[in-house]
Amino acid sequence: MRDQRVDMRELLPQERRELLETTVVGLFRAALLMAEDDDFPLDRGFFDLGLTSLRLSELKGAIEAEFGCEIDTAVLFSRPTTEQLINYLADEVWTV
To answer: Residue 74 — φ and ψ, nearest 5°?
Structure first.
């Protein structure tokens, strides 16, 4: 978890997306027991990566806690890759 909260709405769109990608990918890597330098495929489906519904739900909670937002569970199924989830968060949760 980040030490200092950042108001995502104050960031430029590219900065917001970079912070989201770094943080979300870090959470997914940790959940999948991957090393930081392991290649992480942003375009692979959550279940193709080896996540279970329970683990995905835990990750959803971790992302919500990290960024102080709420993610509808349906979003995880309508945007089933990490890249799609990051784009959703960047474009629809923190639009200015």
So the answer is: -60, -30
CA distance 57 to 54: 5
Instruction: Please state, in angstroms and rounded to a whole number, the distance separating the CA atoms of residues 76 and 82.
Output: 9
How far apart are alpha carbons 78 and 74 in whole angstroms? 6
Task: Please report the sign of the dihedral spanned by the C-alpha atoms of residue 49, residue 63, residue 52, residue 45.
Answer: negative
**DSSP 8-state secondary structure symbol assigned to residue 92:** I
* Claim: this prediction has a pTM higher than 0.90: no
Return d(Cα 89, Cα 23) in angstroms, integer.
12
Q: Which of 11, 15, 3, 8 is nearest to 67 (CA)?
A: 8
Quote the pLDDT of residue 9.
75
In DSSP notation, 44-89 reads SBTTTTT--HHHHHHHHHHHHHHHT----HHHHHHS-BHHHHHHHI
